[in-house]
Amino acid sequence: MTNALGPLRWYAGLAVVFFGLIPATMVTLLVIGGDTPGQVGFLLIGGIPLVLAAVVMVVRGLLGAAEPEVAARRLNLAMALTAGADVLLLGGNALIRMAGS
Fold it and tell me: Is the whole model's pTM more than 0.85, yes or no?
């Protein structure tokens, strides 16, 4: 039987970095620089805690889980939180920009 937890650890870690931390940083820099409507800043109130929770779940899934099922559940939750943060930050940014033009 193959161990599916190894690739899941890699994919969850990469997903949180590339689809969570980097987009949250980019939207934050857009808001700070004034290159986006001011309402986009309100999306950060919900998006940044989701990304931080995803980071915590990845760390707990990588380091703290003794059983593979618990680790897999935490890593899957981290990827779901990252997807939610992406939809909120990037989708909300796009919708606000479309409504403003």
Answer: yes
